Amino acid sequence: MRCNVAPHTFRSSPYFHLTRPLTRRSLKSIEDGLINAQHLDDQIPTELAPGNAAVLIPLANVMDVPGILLEVRGKMMRNHSGEVSFPGGRVDATDSSYVEAALRETREELGIGAQDIEILGQIGPPEVNLRGNMVVYPFVGFVHAGSSHSDHTNTVALDEPLPSCDLDAIRRNASQTEVDAVFHLPLSALTSPARLRASMFRGNRPYWAIGVQDLVSDIPASFKGRMKQIEHDDVDDSEIGPGKYGNLEVWGLTGWYLYLLMKKLKLYY
């Protein structure tokens, strides 16, 4: 099945700039944009259902470049080892909400505490995994560097660039068993034709898969072991995956949620 995504279905977002660091004003704009784009089928239930999951889409400035933190899942992970994903996982008995589950998983996987993450909103509708036994709820947040986001609210001017995260420190603090690599995907990469591959989510929804192999300093062995050729017409319906032709990509459910976020923030048509 071929994908019918138009070759240039993106524009300047009114909510953020692709190359300028994120500021307090842009975070407020993104928060407002997510609220304005929300529909009834996007709503996150207040009552937790056993077995469901939550993920965080973590926006961050790194070296004054705005982007999104992603991870390559560890080779020892039972599911989706060596694949690109957002931090997240199943809710457990200690979680009082889906957003708390996403924050807990982010701390466990990337070593980033909830006090350093400012939740900006949610996107939806949430998707059920391919096995049909788990709903995955996605949240959007911003990772502040060094101190709680309440401190930045009080001390940083509206249009002043928010401090950049130390990506090397995040890599050092990441779980050695759950995470093989951590990388930063610049927002500018989301409209780079050289990175984009038209694909289909669950066989009938076009979206962009994004090549990121050059952004990972050392391709993990867990990924190399999964490299294989895939025919052009194969349906791209994996949950998260290494992409086609052995290229590390943001695709599947991770790619779909990223695409959905950019549609809601009007970067993609």
From TrEMBL:
One of its GO terms (biological process) is coenzyme A catabolic process. Keywords: Hydrolase, Magnesium, Manganese, Metal-binding. Residues 50-211 form the Nudix hydrolase domain. The keyword Acyltransferase does not apply. One of its GO terms (molecular function) is coenzyme A diphosphatase activity. Its cofactor is Mg(2+); Mn(2+). InterPro entries: CoAse (IPR045121), NUDIX_hydrolase-like_dom_sf (IPR015797), NUDIX_hydrolase_dom (IPR000086). The keyword Acetylation does not apply. It comes from the Eukaryota. Pfam families: NUDIX (PF00293). This is NUDIX hydrolase domain-like protein. It comes from Lentinula raphanica. The lineage of its organism: Eukaryota, Fungi, Dikarya, Basidiomycota, Agaricomycotina.
